[in-house]
Amino acid sequence: MQSNVATVDEYLEALPEDRREALQQVRTVILENLDPTFEEGMQYGMVGYYIPHSVYPAGYHCDPKQPLPFAGMASQKQHLSLYLSCVYGSEEERASFVEQWIASGKKLTKSTMGKACIRFKKVEDLPLDLIGKTIKRWTAKKYIALYEGVIKR
Fold first, then answer.
1. How far is CA 52 from CA 11, 35, 55, 65, 120, in A?
2. 29 occurs within a structural domain
3. How many domains is the chain partitioned into structurally?
4. pLDDT tens profile 93-127
5. DSSP per-residue codes, 52-84
6. Closest alpha carbon to 43 in 55, 57, 60, 26
7. From CA 148, how far away is CA 123, in angstroms rounded?
8. Calpha distance 102→81 (Å, rounded)
9. What is the pTM of this model?
């Protein structure tokens, strides 16, 4: 469900306590591992992590007014969602991510993970260490290179 709030704090405060706590834990993992070039803010009605226009002026090719999205998280009607564009943009990264997820012992099904979206009911469903490791692996420069390679295909 898209939100019209202006800040991440407002977004989180508007959630029921259990969802707020779950997304706050995911947020903490992301922020602890995020290249400082990325910024956090509201994007597409959810919490977004993106490369600002000051670093990547072209923005997102689907909507150049938007900064380049990297990750996001949201409270949806039936579940919570985590979006990892870096996993979507690279078959190699995706295969490695799925392999590591399965090795973590956490459940992963076709309904749990789409191309870039991971759906979960509670934070215990996620291998947070893998999510942190995945976020940490991507610098803004490396992500821009992946993104530009994908959109040129």
1. 20, 12, 6, 10, 28
2. yes
3. 1
4. 899 999 999 999 998 888 889 888 999 999 999 99
5. -TTT-TT-BTTBTTS-EEEEEEEE-SSSEEEEE
6. 60
7. 32
8. 18
9. 0.93
